[in-house]
Specification:
mainly alpha, 4 helices
């Protein structure tokens, strides 16, 4: 039985356009495309379990990004700085 998320996603037209653009780009890093797809599917009303199954990821990952988008909108999908020593080698 899938649970409904308390974080219902409603997108503005600008957010929808931006997320569709990100989801369709082949040149963006994989994680950015996946996050955009997660939010687009959440806006369609799919449960976290269904989104995870479609995108071949874990439900906890979908929950995390849905909650972060709900609170911070598009800025929440960006990478945050990580603690610790900076990278020595480029990505």
């Amino acid at each position: 039985m899938s649970r409904t998320s308390p974080y219902a996603i409603r997108l503005s037209s600008a957010e929808l356009a931006q997320l569709e653009k990100r989801a369709g780009k082949y040149t963006l890093p994989y994680f950015q495309v996946q996050r955009a797809k997660m939010i687009l599917l959440a806006a369609e009303g799919l449960a976290n379990d269904q989104i995870a199954a479609r995108l071949d990821t874990r439900r906890e990952v979908v929950c995390f990004w849905r909650k972060r988008f709900f609170s911070k909108r598009l800025a929440g999908l960006e990478e945050r700085s990580r603690p610790g020593r900076p990278r020595t080698f480029p990505p």
